[in-house]
Amino acid sequence: MVLPLVNLCAKEVVSDHSSSPGWLGCVPRELYRPLLEAAFTNCRPLAVGELVQRWPERTLRAGGRRQGQSPPNRLCVQALLLAVVRGLSDKRCVLQVLDLCGLQCEEGGVGDPMGGWSLTVALCTMVVQARAAAQRALGREGEQERKRVLAMERERDVVKRERGGGLEEGEGGGLLVESVRKEKEETLGCLREDQQVKGVRRRMEMERRKESAPVAGLAGGKVGEGEAVSEVDSEVVVCVRADLFVNARSWERVRAALGTTGPLKLQCRYVRVEELSVSSIGSLLDLLPRHVLLGVDIRYSCLGVAGLALLLPKLSMFPMLSSLRLHYCNLDIRRDMAGQEGAMKDISQGLGKLSQLRRLSLTALRLPGHLRMLLSSFPQPLEVLELPYLSLTPADLSYLSCSPHASSLQQLDLSENRLDESALPSVRRLLSQASSCLMQLSLSGCGLTDGLLVAMLPSLSCCRGLKSLCLALNPLSLAGLLDLVRMAVRMPSLRQLLYPNPLEDYQPGLPPMPSSAQLLDWPLDELVEVHEATSLQLDRVVMESGRSDLFLTCDLLNYNKDLVEQ
């Protein structure tokens, strides 16, 4: 990849920190972004801090990495956050919106990036510390003003005593005392106003909001609601948008940051919650700004059917919510427990109120026979549906194939749901309905044998927009695998195929119809020749087709379907 000239020059400029005093004062605002990108790319935290503290634009977006771009180093992210706080008192900084959405990545990655939990804790600490610093500065200013008022009072007392000899305790003395009292009240009133509006940036922001308030009123907004929001946001200088990772260890800090009013306001786009109680999740949702949240991901939390029914009304308060993911949240209703059917109806009604939802992921919730109840209440069809480990029944698949969602699905995950001959007609009908829009399909661990796969291949080949296909951990022979690859090379849109190891590659002793768990745990044959023979046959099929843009892999652990270009 050839870098543009401006990026090469920016790299050289930020590489030498000793020269920064020479160029920081004269660099034009158009070069701040390439300089900041170069500082992030080359791990120059000092340059990051100096640029952000003087940021000349109202918006700074540091998240959302491009494909192939490495995440920022942890030190650079910390330097950015510290510089934002310092910029609150720097007249050269005009920053109003800091967008860090998509910045976090997995902990311990290449280059020491900052993970989601660490970034969440750092952001919340920054918000709380900025509030404390503003209060200390306000207190110091108030103390100085109080001392000045006391000095004025003492001076007035001296003047009063000096003039007291020539004035009687009558009209003249009363006028003097009254004038001193009025001047004191005016001074204290100015002090209160100055304490509420501190700093040039905050005054400018409040004046701008006052000018735009009549326009908002004419647009039909509620006066009472607008005044309440104005009062809350009167101290806000910078809005910080980020994706939050909340668990039991970070919950208290997140609650303190979201409940804090100060120069920094934390806004959340996507929130991931792990191992929190239903009450804590409800409290978190109450604190999040309403018109910013796009997605909620709840994992490893013991919700139960009743708990989820209580949370859904809170989720319906977010008008932009488009993604809901529930992973291992213990909604198992196979046991005969009183009240669960009523709670399931409440869940169905609650899901129906999520009018903007386009992505629904239900992992390992064990809800056999309830798919119609869950999906029939949505006012709009879903585009992404992930149902792994859901114990789907043939009736569930039959409903899904005829539902309004089938013709709108772009991503479908039915992994670890056992598919047999009774479910095959529904699956084929589902693929036919989704053939025009489906781009990602996962049928890993579904027990697909050679016979089932052959019957399904015509329906798969009709999915003309399919880009990613996952079929790992299915008991296919080498002959069945070759049939799969021959079909894949005839699909021009397909870019990635995750195929299962053929049964011939495993060590002897594997059961005739192994489960996905057995295929995952059973050792592969240690003979290298066996694996090489399989790879050679697959490569030969791909080479004969002339396809160079199709990636084949059996590496389940390192496979990433999101790498497919949309």
Automatic annotation (TrEMBL):
Predominant location category: cytoplasm
Location(s), subcellular: Cytoplasm
Coiled-coil segments on the chain, per record: none
Gene3D superfamilies, A to Z: Ribonuclease Inhibitor (3.80.10.10)
Keyword Cytoplasm applies: yes
Highest taxon, organism lineage: Eukaryota
Keywords linked to the UniProt accession: Cytoplasm, Leucine-rich repeat, Repeat
A GO cellular-component term linked to this record: cytoplasm
Name of protein: Leucine-rich repeat-containing protein 14
